Amino acid sequence: SGTAVGTVYNYFPAKEDLTVAVVEHYFARAFYEEFCHLGTTEDFAAYCERLCTRVHEVIATFRTRWLADANAIPAAEKAAARLREHEMLDHVRVGLESVFARDPRIARDQLPPEVNAASVAQFVLDVLVGSLRDQRSDCTVLIHLLRNGLYAHPAAP
User: Fold this and answer.
1) Given 21, 53, 56, 69, which is the most exposed site by the fewest CB atoms within 10 A?
2) Alpha-carbon span 147 to 52, nearest angstrom
3) Among 143, 147, 149, CA closest to 48
4) Which residues lie closer than 8 Å to 27 by C-beta, 6 or more apart?
5) Phi, psi angle pair for 21, to nearest 5°
C-alpha cells in the first residue's frame, strides 16, 4: 500500500493489534448497520432469524477468505482475537436482551419466572455459537422454539 511499516506501528503497537483491528472492522461492517441500531419493529423471533441467517453468511465468508491460513496465525494474535470475540458476543447478548425487552407480543405472563430477557438472550447466543462451532447453518429449530415458546397462541377449538 506504499505505507512504511514504522507508520503502521504508530497506530498499532503490535502486529496482533493490527490483526484484531482488521477482523473487528470486518465484523462491524457486516453487522453494524443491520443489527446495532435497535430501532427495529420486528418481533424477537424475526430478529433472531435474521441475525442467525446473517451470522452464518458472514462466518462462511470469513472462514473462506480470512481463516484459510489460520494455522499460520501466531498464538498471541489468536488469544487477542478470542478476547475481542468474547467482548463482541457480550455486545450481541445485550442487543438481544434489548430486542426481547421491547417486544410487546411476548406472552410474559405465560413464561416461568426464570425465563426473561437475559436468559433467553443467553440461550439464543449459546445455540448460535454452537451452530457456528459445529458448522450447522440451520436455525430452524431455534426459531420454531422461540415462536412457539414466547408468543401466545389462540386456544384450539
Assistant:
1) 69
2) 15
3) 143
4) 58, 62, 88
5) -65, -40
Q: Report pLDDT for 117.
A: 96
Give me 71's grid cell.
Answer: 494455522
Tell me how crowded residue 128 is: count the other CB atoms within 10 A of its CB.
Answer: 20
SS in 3 state form for 69-98?
HHHHCCHHHHHHHHHHHHHHHHHHHHHHHH
C-alpha–C-alpha distance, residues 40 and 27, integer Å? 20
Check if the beta carbon of residue 67 is closer than 8 Å to that of residue 77: no
Q: Residue 4: is it exposed, middle or buried by C-beta count within 10 angstroms (0-12/13-18/19+)?
A: exposed
The tens-digit pLDDT sequence of the chain (157 residues) is 677 777 777 777 776 677 667 666 666 665 555 556 556 678 999 989 988 888 777 777 766 666 665 566 667 666 666 666 677 778 888 889 999 999 999 999 999 999 999 999 999 999 988 887 787 778 899 999 999 999 987 655 5
CB 44 within 8 A of CB 146: yes
Total residues belonging to the chain: 157
- Rounded to 5 degrees, φ, ψ at 36 are -95, -5
Distances in Å between the Cα of 90 and the Cα atoms of 15, 65, 81, 86 are 25, 25, 14, 6
